[in-house]
Amino acid sequence: MTVTETRTPLPDAATLRRPAAMRLMWLAVSFAVLATLSVASVAFGVRDVALNDILAGLGGDTGGVAQAAVVARVPRTVLAILVGAALAMSGAAMQAVTRNPLADPGILGISGGAALAVVVGIAFFGMSDPYAFIAASIVGAGGAAVFVYTVGSLGRGGATPLKLALAGAATSAAFMSLVSAVLLPRVDLLETFRFWQIGGVGGATWDRIATILPILTAGAVITLVCARGMNSLALGDDVATGLGEHVLRTRLIASAGAVILCGAATAIAGPIAFVGLIIPHLCRLLVGTDHRWLLPFSAVAGAVLLVAADIVGRVIARPDEIEVGILTALIGAPFFIWIVRRQKVREL
């Protein structure tokens, strides 16, 4: 008699469901962690400050070194929160639109396209207005997204996750090489942008945050409006169409929101990779796949990751610091390999 071995497939993130109470609990925990890390971000750095110095600095006292440090760290912390939230939401939207578990602004070359557009605009067109930086970054991100999706769609099978990941990796490498080629002959620009090219939140100011905040808000609103449509896309195009969803329109609008978030975040903080890959996968394990929950939860968790990376980068390399783009790459590269092995690059 032949015995046929049967294996029960392991449940993946796409099969998980979570009750509302558990989702609210995880969301509250995430906010608590973010608040704790925000205080730590203000307290720790090249010079640690005490609680009374933090309160004095927040109260407007800049007479001492410690209070001045607090005043300088607060906008940096706020910027890390905004950029982390934007990149995480962008990654979650891209994964939903492409049904690709490897979708991420960095992996798909979108951050690279934004970075190249900014550098070209400064080097050849003399851009200096911050809104011009943001516009160039968003246009570059959108062009890169269209290019990668077009290349990944060529051949049999259309835009499979594997082809999109390969096209994105090759495009990202080409874009960053072009960025270096533009900067290397220009020593003045190279000195200014060598840290921006790595990706970081140092040098944050309230003026820069005020410039970027309305654009990030617009991108977040566009993405959140498409949350229900993203749930339909997860069922497949045919089923989504049968449910009355306009598949092409949903994809275009959601993609526009993701590109705006990624482009604006890249313009102000440089190309920071893997936040949009790591966070949505972890959040699916905690709150399930409903994008009405997943998107806001990803925003909070992305902020937690980037604030934590910024704190670690400042503490472990005193009196210097390690940019957050390096730390997210160190965390994200092994996670990327794990996703490839676990998902076997199949669609979401």
TrEMBL record:
Segments passing through the bilayer: 24-46, 77-94, 106-125, 131-152, 164-184, 252-282, 294-316, 322-340
UniProt record, GO biological process: siderophore-iron import into cell
UniProt-listed InterPro entries: ABC_BtuC-like, ABC_transptr_permease_BtuC
Location(s) in or outside the cell: Cell membrane
Main location: membrane
Record key words, sorted: Cell membrane, Membrane, Transmembrane, Transmembrane helix, Transport
Xref: CDD domains: TM_ABC_iron-siderophores_like
GO CC term (a single one): plasma membrane
Domain of life of the native organism: Bacteria
Gene Ontology MF: a single term: transmembrane transporter activity
Membrane topology listed for this record: Multi-pass membrane protein
Family the UniProt entry places it in: Belongs to the binding-protein-dependent transport system permease family. FecCD subfamily.
Protein name stated in the entry: Putative siderophore transport system permease protein YfiZ
Gene (UniProt): yfiZ
